[in-house]
Design goal:
The complex is a heterotetramer, with 2 copies of chain A and 2 copies of chain B.
Chain A lengths: L1 E4 L1 H7 L3 E3 L9 H8 L4 H6 L7 E4 L2 E3 L10 E5 L6
Parallel strand pairs in A: 1-5
Antiparallel strand pairs in A: 1-2, 3-4, 3-5
Chain B lengths: L1 E6 L5 H7 L5 E9 L6 E8 L3 H17 L3 E7 L1 E3 L4 E9 L2 H18 L2 E7 L2 E4 L4 H8 L4
Parallel strand pairs in B: 1-4
Antiparallel strand pairs in B: 2-6, 3-5, 3-7, 4-6, 7-8
Helix pairs in contact in B: 2-3, 3-4
Classes of the chains: A alpha+beta, B alpha+beta.
């Protein structure tokens, strides 16, 4: 599963993307974030404030409690600020 | 006709506006510029390649259908830019002025909440990520059915 | 800054739009074009020299004050023109997008009812004066306090 | 007093402007229109439908029952159709 990070999430994690294979119990975006947070201090810092995180599964915006079964690409990022 | 462009190049708003003048009626445009009045020396825009363009196409298509537009254009710059430069251009064309004006307002309100872009400002030696604003959500919300 | 121009020359909408990009923020524009889809070969606009310009300046100034605009431009063409050509350009500049968009809509709605212009259409061999439309009055009315 | 005509009012009257000296009893735009209508068949045709006439006194839009005392310029025209 490809994980993408943007903006300050990317900066704190330290990489723009990574390939991971989460264990089978990790079945929602929120569970994925919990699991990713254990990978490094940077990950933990990036995911410390859950209410500031947004996500997309296979490029569609989703809530953090959405399932990730079958997802090929999950993106984690702050609220958007374009325009 | 839908046109969406996300690019680090300067936005040719005059050319984009002229391209909307196809079959008469009304053309409305909105141009967002980097504000020069708050000490920002560089504004940098990050996006989610592929997903951002797809979100903008969905938005433009939604506006085209809802207001019966003959054309809709969204051009968003990414990368570093300076005060006074154009960040975003939105343009709409319709046989009717109200449709063009409302659709233009819809697109600029909604792209602030519905498309993945992130702004980072440099003020003096400090850079910071811009936080999302509640009133952007409110502005986008007024277009929900 | 208020700019009003009533002229038989083609409207330079790109130049007018660029001139509004002074101190950052937001620029909204509206361009009205002679419609090509209803058989009109020539559209002719008559105005009341002096009074028309004064009415447009009053409108632009009212918008500037009401929405705190940094600039407002109204350019209206008069004399004969052909399908696809620009009849009118309205542009507004503000630090805030909602102000620019609302003021732009206000100006185009109100100038249809508050400024002395008269349209005459040629279709085939016949010319006729265009009649005022009730929905223009309704559109202008929504801006009254 | 200078009288200006626009659009089909101008076409029916046959001139774009004229200088007139209305009698003293002619004290409103409506009374002025009544008086002007007697000047020619063209004037009469131009002013046949009062509800389609609009007016300005010294370049300010006014209702037809407005006074014209002291006016230097009165314009008579159809409803406007700009924009």
């Amino acid at each position: 599963m490809k994980i993408l990070y943007f903006a300050w999430v990317r900066e704190r994690v330290g990489v723009a993307e990574e390939d991971v294979t989460p264990p089978s119990g990790v079945d929602t975006v929120a569970a994925l974030v919990d699991w990713l947070a254990t990978r490094s201090d940077g990950h933990a810092a990036a995911f410390a404030e859950r209410d500031k995180l947004r996500a997309a599964v296979d490029q569609a915006f989703v809530a953090l409690d959405s399932p990730i079964a079958g997802a090929r690409e999950v993106a984690i990022f702050p609220p958007v600020t374009g325009g | 006709m839908i046109r969406v462009l996300v690019s680090p190049d300067a936005i040719d708003s005059a050319g984009e506006m002229a391209a909307l003048e196809t079959d008469g009626g009304a053309v409305a445009t909105f141009t967002g510029l980097v504000r020069a009045d708050d000490g920002v020396s560089v504004l940098e825009l990050e996006h989610y390649p592929g997903a951002t363009e797809a979100a903008l196409v969905r938005l433009a298509e939604a506006a085209r259908v809802r207001w019966g537009l003959s054309a809709a254009t969204i051009v968003h710059r990414v990368g570093p830019m300076r005060p006074g430069e154009r960040i975003v251009f939105v343009g709409t064309a319709s046989a009717h002025r109200a449709a063009a004006l409302e659709a233009c307002a819809f697109l600029i309100d909604r792209l602030k909440t519905d498309a993945p872009f992130w702004k980072r400002e440099t003020v003096g030696d400090a850079t910071r990520w811009v936080e999302a604003r509640a009133h952007d959500d409110a502005a986008a919300q007024r277009w929900r059915d």
